[in-house]
Amino acid sequence: MSGGGASGGSPGRRAPGVAFLFLAPFLVIYAIFLVYPLFKGFWISLHDWELAGGYREYIGFLNYEDLWTDKLFWRTVRNTLYFVALTVPTMTLLALLLALAVHGTGRLRSILRSVFFMSSVFSVTVVTLVWSMVLSADQGLLVPLWHAIGIKPVNFLAHPTLAMPSIALATLWWGVGLPMALFLAALGQIPQELYEAAELDHASRWTVLRRITLPSIRHTLLLVVVLQIIGQFQIFGQAMLMTQGGPANKTKTMVQYIYDTGFRDWQVGYASAIAMALFLLMLGFSMLQLWLGRKGDEA
Amino acid sequence: MSTARRTGSTRTADLILLGLTVAFAILWMIPVVWVVTMSLKPNDELMRSTAGFIPYPFTIDNYVSLLKLATVPRWLMHSFVVAISMTALVLIVSSMAGYAFARLQFPFKRTLFLIVLAGLMVPEQAVFIPLFTMFADWGMHNTHAALVAPRLAVPIGVFLMTQFFRAVPRELEEAAELDHASHFTIFWRIMLPLSVPALTTLGLFTFIFAWNDFLWPLVSATKADMFTVTVGLASIQSNFAFSEGLGSVMASAVFASLPIVILFLIFQRFIVAGVAMGAGK
């Protein structure tokens, strides 16, 4: 974050009235549509609150107690964690490799950058449509290949062990652009002199990568991992549209459970409790990452 | 010097790496090319086989019938209205707040800035249920306002604009101050024109985000004639028997992505530049 610029104003700038005029539009919107809902969400989670009919009763932490013994809830937690574990390391590694490969000048590299970034501008519905087709067992892109090598086409999205990795694959294709761009930005900021010095020392490529490039971008690496954790915990659209949470709830994620509970069963009190659990889980994991990153810095 | 041979082998390695990357990029694009191909084939041909990357027999009937359908153009219109107004409002609100945080003195500035930054940690899933009940109480679901308003409370824009304004050299404003220009004049005449690149990047990301927004429109715009194109496509996906109008489904996906892809191709250089700006310390 930008260091200490807060106190650097010139004397003519002490105008709290004007400042609040500039701030008011954002702060009002922020208070109404983010701060208040966050507290209201917690408040709702303390109720037996039905969306239809308006039934609501204060029940304290009963929803959270129910959550604790809810097998389906823990299954969605496991599924979500599994998805995060599948996507975050692969996404980070792929983004880094691609950034290293397409970093630099020239028309070709610039086209390659666009190619790998472009899949991130598609909406989740387009991405899932594309990948549901690609992975389809009867019309899929790989079907001719299966026939050629003479095995029965695999129905990836209905397969109990392959469904989640398939969703992760689609997510990887969809999401690699932004972390790649973050790495590219970091690579562009490494002083050229470091590389020139390494060249004089006849350092190998591997050494340069390990000793210069990776240490120089470690803050970005941490940023990418934290952003990926936050992003991938929120997995919803891909699983909902590609597998509807199936087969046998194997790909049902926490957000899908929130959505189903709140907007299919109308139990928004219980749904809010799951949402709070998700929020805390995400907060915990990103704090842990930041803490580990800081420890790495001190070491 | 013995570096000559070294540079030679480095160059070969470079070329091999580049070749591998190109091959990977082609692989990367195959699903998209395939979907576009299918959208240009007749439906009954697709019933027979979906294989191949050459649209033969060729037809644009899928697109023509799409436009004749009332729904898809209507969804596109909603997406445009929502994305454009969200982009405009995010730019106004974020740049104003960013200017105050970067350049003006007022009490509780650091605290307020930290509170705004803390908002970055709040996922939409933590607030979308209370937001749903709020908009239901106000009777405002299935309106454009409901799709736009909650999305203006995103702190990332304020953060980016604050970072950008802080980096602007002060001399530019000091000259204006000598002329007793008001803060509004300085903001409007000096800061905003300087921040066109930053505004472009923020605007671009906001537009893409708005166009692809899924969870909130899914619960707020529940009437089929209020769908955005992203939610509308999801409804097609779950309703259509895939084997029937496959070409039409693919055409609608291509059609829905066209505006955003064109926008990306025109403004792509701002994306990497903007990421660099946001990631800069």
Rg estimate of chain B, integer Å: 24 Å
Tally of strands of chain B: 0
- Structural class based on helices, strands and sheet pairing of chain B: mainly alpha
CATH topology of the largest domain in chain B: MetI-like fold
List the domain count of chain A as a whole number. 1
Q: How far from one another are the termini of chain B?
A: 41 Å
Question: What's the total helix number of chain A?
Answer: 14
The fraction of residues assigned to DSSP E strands of chain B is under 5%
CATH architecture of chain A: Orthogonal Bundle
CATH classification class of chain A: Mainly Alpha
CATH superfamily of chain A: MetI-like
**Which consecutive residue ranges of chain A, at least 5 long each, have pLDDT under 50?**
1-12
- The percent of residues in helical segments of chain A reads 55-70%
- How helical, in percent, are the residues of chain B? over 70%
Shape of chain A: globular
Give a brief outline of the structure:
The complex is a heterodimer of chains A (299) and B (281). Chain A is 70% helix and 2% strand. Chain A has 299 residues and is mainly α.
Features:
heterodimer, A: 299 residues, mainly alpha, MetI-like fold, two-stranded antiparallel sheet, 2 strands, disordered N terminus, B: 281 residues, 2 domains, 14 helices, 74% helix, globular
Structural notes for this entry:
The complex is a heterodimer of chains A (299) and B (281). With 299 residues, chain A is an all-alpha fold. Chain A has one domain: Orthogonal Bundle (MetI-like fold), CATH 1.10.3720. In chain A, 70% of the residues lie in helices and 2% in strands. Chain A is built from 14 helices and 2 strands, in the order αββααααααααααααα. Chain A has helices at 16-45, 62-68, 71-102, 107-118, 124-135, 143-149, 163-175, 177-188, 192-200, 205-216, 218-233, 237-242, 254-263, 268-298; strands spanning 47-49, 56-58. In chain A, β1 and β2 form a beta hairpin. In chain A, α3 (71-102) packs across α7, α3 (71-102) crosses α8 (177-188) and α8 runs antiparallel to α11 (218-233). The longest helix of chain A has 32 residues, at 71-102. Chain A is globular. By secondary structure, chain B is mainly α. Chain B folds into 2 domains: 3-48; 70-239, Orthogonal Bundle (MetI-like fold), CATH 1.10.3720.10. In chain B, 74% of the residues lie in helices and 0% in strands. In chain B, α1 packs antiparallel against α14 and α13 (229-239) packs antiparallel against α14 (246-279). The mean pLDDT of chain B is 87. The chains are: A mainly alpha (299), B mainly alpha (281). Chains A and B meet through α1, α3, α4, α5 and α8 of A and α1, α4, α5, α6 and α8 of B.
